[in-house]
Amino acid sequence: KEFRPVGGRQTRQADVRILAAANSDLRAAIQTGRFRADLFYRLNVMPLHLPRLRDRRDDLGELAEHFLTRYAKEFGALVTAVSPAALAKLGAHDWPGNIRELENVIQRAVLMAAGERIEPSDILFDDPVADGCQANPCSPATFRNLKARAVAEFERRYISDLLRAHAGNITHAAKAAGKNRRALWELMRKHQLAPSNRNRVG
User: Fold this and answer.
1) Residues near 155 by Cβ (< 8 Å), separated by ≥ 6?
2) pTM of the entire structure?
């Protein structure tokens, strides 16, 4: 392809492919003067229509698994699957935020999950009505419970990584964490972590 930069005098060459996307009707935007017709016809070589997420719910499972795998790896989480009940909750949602909303929901669920599967209680939507709060604000108890779960998950992962880094040596791990041995033992007992088997709960 050859092109000349705006204000330039020399023609340049580039080997590129352009993929453009829009979430609105560009033909209607042209009629109202909100989009340039010449740009539309330059881009509109091979048009593809991608339905909204609410119109292709059969893809929810694969998309959720994709985001789960991505964020479980990024956060070092033990979550490996979405439970059937959680998947049903995802399928019942209207997804006004489309794919981006699903990504956010799964990312949040990976952080909140207490076990190896995402459960319905881990699925929190941006819409308070969808989350069941409706006209009344969510109760403080719900916030406290979620906060406690997040703190507990952080503690478990932190201690597990700490023990791994110090090959199970409690004294060295406690010193690195700025805690005494007894306090570290209490946290290990709380989260069922053993120095000789640091990566598993049980």
Assistant:
1) 187, 190, 191
2) 0.54
